[in-house]
Amino acid sequence: MPRFQYRAVKPDGEVVEGDLEAVDEAAVVKYLQASGLIPIQARSGGRWWRTFLGRRTVRRLSPAEIGIVTRQLATLLEAGLTLDRSLQILVDLTSEEHLVAVLNDVQSRVRGGATFSSALEAQDGQFPRLYVNMVRAGEASGALDAVLGRLADYLERSAELRSTITSALYYPMILLFVAGFSVIALLVWVVPQFTVLFEDMGAALPLPTQVVVNVGDAFRSYWWAMLSGVALAALAIERLVQRPDVRARLDHWLLDMPLFGDLVWKLETARFSRTLSTLLANGLPLLTALNLAKEVVANHKLSGLLSEASEDLKRGRGLAEPLGRRGALPQLALQMIRVGEESGSLDGMLGKVAQVYDQETRASVQRLLTLLEPLLIIGLGVIVAGIIVSILMAILGANELVF
């Protein structure tokens, strides 16, 4: 029998890893659940060749597709349809081949006796770990339709926030592209026309003009080398950022940046609060929910602070106190969490924290763009003005030679 590597969470929130022999992933999940563990991941150790050769050709499900499927499935289950019938309806309604393949595989596993969560987990990472665990909690509580409804709300709100930030960045990106293209066009097509004129007049070019001319010549003659250099630099930076030590230093630096660090903090606070709220509303214990929710936090510094807070939570110190001691969340969020703990409605208060910091994130993005757009325009103006001044200097120098 093949061996499977697994990760699971104990009832006290501790994450455990190991490997065991089993017939398939479903058997591993059943064994872990029978042992009192919450399975997170179970993958065969002998499928490296399929990961290397085949996984790259499989189209991944987008967050939007997962959100739509979740909402439709929740609606069908709430209407009283069985899970098998609901999945069949989704297959009939879907026109995307890659989504149909995933749904067919999930349905076949469910018909074979697997749980819905284990069928989702067997899709080679198509569904996030958080998603699978929330479905598993819904199965355990017998309220899968309600859990899927909350999941759909969670995915839709997360997608809305992501879309808001992305849309806000369109204008600066377009402006930056136009600025770069305009400068390159001046250097490659406009400046050479003046260079020929200066050479015919026999005038010696001033140093600023010579610099501009040389930069234009470099763009015309070595554009392929510059593009290759940019691509290699981007690849090297991507590889470098993937190193844990470099990523940790970068995340520390991002949080310390003025304006941008505040934006990252608020965005992560909204994401963490919404995730933890949804997990608690689905019936997961606080410690388990915290260990799962911290995985959605992309910033390594904040994720480390949340990990330290989870250790204090094991000692019965609540949630707000350890988070506040380490400065993991803003003060307003901490005060709201403390009120939620005192009133016994922590999941609802965390949902309000997420709403507050969604709005704060949007406001921070707008403030950042308000400063960024004029800086881009001024930067473009300075570069273009420098090119024009360098040409005028050469023209004036040539006129002095004539007279």
From TrEMBL:
<keyword id="KW-1133">Transmembrane helix</keyword>
<feature type="domain" description="Type II secretion system protein GspF">
    <location>
        <begin position="272"/>
        <end position="393"/>
    </location>
</feature>
<feature type="domain" description="Type II secretion system protein GspF">
    <location>
        <begin position="70"/>
        <end position="192"/>
    </location>
</feature>
<feature type="transmembrane region" description="Helical">
    <location>
        <begin position="168"/>
        <end position="191"/>
    </location>
</feature>
<dbReference type="InterPro" id="IPR042094">
    <property type="entry name" value="T2SS_GspF_sf"/>
</dbReference>
<feature type="transmembrane region" description="Helical">
    <location>
        <begin position="375"/>
        <end position="398"/>
    </location>
</feature>
<dbReference type="InterPro" id="IPR018076">
    <property type="entry name" value="T2SS_GspF_dom"/>
</dbReference>
<dbReference type="GO" id="GO:0015628">
    <property type="term" value="P:protein secretion by the type II secretion system"/>
</dbReference>
<keyword id="KW-0997">Cell inner membrane</keyword>
<dbReference type="InterPro" id="IPR003004">
    <property type="entry name" value="GspF/PilC"/>
</dbReference>
<dbReference type="Pfam" id="PF00482">
    <property type="entry name" value="T2SSF"/>
</dbReference>
<protein>
    <submittedName>
        <fullName>Type II secretory pathway, component PulF</fullName>
    </submittedName>
</protein>
<dbReference type="GO" id="GO:0005886">
    <property type="term" value="C:plasma membrane"/>
</dbReference>
<keyword id="KW-1003">Cell membrane</keyword>
<keyword id="KW-0472">Membrane</keyword>
<feature type="transmembrane region" description="Helical">
    <location>
        <begin position="222"/>
        <end position="241"/>
    </location>
</feature>
<keyword id="KW-0812">Transmembrane</keyword>
<comment type="similarity">
    <text>Belongs to the GSP F family.</text>
</comment>
